[in-house]
């Protein structure tokens, strides 16, 4: 009855073990936004695993998150043009 969700890093999951567990009904399903090698390889065992949903590493991109990203970008550009840069990396 358990579901595995991974939106962190693909390397956290043993993909072959996950595919095997899904095939044996040891897990109810998996939802992944990341895989160990991106772009995803055609040989990845999760491609044929049952009850496995894989998104193209953009599950973070809700409308709200994208709007916030654009707002921060606009604020950074405006601050730079005023001579007061913010969010700088040295």
Structural features, described:
The chain has 2 helices and 3 strands, in the order βαββα. It has helices spanning 15-23, 63-81; strands at 3-6, 29-32, 52-54. It starts with a strand and ends in a 9-residue tail after the last helix.
Quick structural overview:
It contains two helices and three strands; from the N terminus they run βαββα. The radius of gyration is 19 Å and the shape is elongated. It has 90 residues and is of the alpha/beta class.
Termini Cα gap: 48 Å
**Uncertain runs with pLDDT below 50, 5 residues or more?**
none
Which structural category do the helix and sheet elements fall into? alpha/beta
Number of strands: 3
Instruction: Tell me about the largest β-sheet.
Output: 3 strands, parallel
Instruction: Give the overall average pLDDT.
Output: 94
Supply the number of helical segments. 2
Beta-strand percentage?
5-15%
